[in-house]
Amino acid sequence: MTKDQYEAVLKKYPELASLYHLVKEFNRVVFSKKPEELNTWITEAESIDYIAELKSYIEGLKKDYEAVSNAIRYDYNNGLAEGSVTKIKLVKRIMYGRNTF
Q1: Helix/strand/coil percent split, the chain, to 5
Q2: b/e for 33-67, b at 16 or more Cβ within 10 A?
Q3: I want to staple 17 with a disulfide (CB 3.0 to 4.6 A). Which of 6, 10, 28, 91 is the partner?
């Protein structure tokens, strides 16, 4: 997609432009290591009330606010443990013959 096509799409669909801006801003907040900016993003996102999925996502962020702010603040994660668990589950499915779709 060229820059002209991109700008034409955003001009034709202003809802998409505002949603795209929100997604980029959320990405910036997550990687900024400043969890206090999450409140600003949430209030900005709540102004868009015509997307039900976005409202649901915001409610989920509010319910788990402490975990989300800690994920922004710290570099710790459980990716290594989750990968090991997934591998163990795969081996068990193969052993018991349940590895087909």
Answers
A1: 75, 0, 25
A2: eebebbeebbeebeeeeeeeebeeebeebeeeeee
A3: 10
Q: Average pLDDT for consecutive 10-residue bins of the chain (101 residues)?
A: 87 88 94 93 90 92 94 87 91 82 57
Q: What is d(CA 92, CA 86) in angstroms, rounded to the nearest whole number? A: 10
CB 51 within 8 A of CB 13: no
Tokens standing for 16?
Answer: 């998409």
pTM above 0.85, yes or no: no
| Beta-carbon contacts of residue 62 (< 8 Å; ≥ 6 apart) | 42
